[in-house]
């Protein structure tokens, strides 16, 4: 199944995209269950769950989006455990973690839940950047995770938010410097 995901008006209605993605997720879940020794199938399932989460987020169903992102993170972590040197699996894990943190914030979950999600996203991004130091763009992922956490703290702890933003800027600068 190929699903074209669009934000806003377009040829594909979001409800139709969600239905197609749900069918794709169901199929991918079965394939992943049938082949638990194939991390590529786990990773594919994680990607489909993430895409459905984005669609559900656009539809305003943040609770369902968060559930999809939690499941995406779990199956992607299994793929990473099976093949920790696979950069794509690790990138997807970082994406799932950061999106999960943002949706948790947008749901106005308890601050400790939001903080834990953001800290996990930062940790995953840092590990990716450290393990693959030859890829400058991974430093930007750390910056993005730091920025997202700072955004969630802006009202409650502006001092810590500023510190996180300064660290995020340093990550971006380092990435851009090393990318030339």
Mean pLDDT, as a whole number? 92
Q: What share of the residues lie within helices? A: over 70%
Helix-strand sequence: HHHHHHH
Shape verdict = globular
User: Rounded to an integer, what's the Rg over CA atoms?
Assistant: 17 Å
The end-to-end distance, rounded to whole angstroms, is: 39 Å
Q: How many beta-strand elements?
A: 0
Sheet/helix structural class: mainly alpha
* Unreliable parts: none
**Strand portion, in percent?**
under 5%
Count of individual helical segments? 7
Major beta-sheet overview: none
Account of the 3D structure:
α1 runs antiparallel to α2 (39-58). The longest helix has 21 residues, at 14-34. The N and C termini lie far apart (39 Å). This protein has 7 helices and no strands. The protein is mainly α and 180 residues long. The chain has helices spanning 14-34, 39-58, 62-82, 87-106, 111-131, 137-153, 158-178.
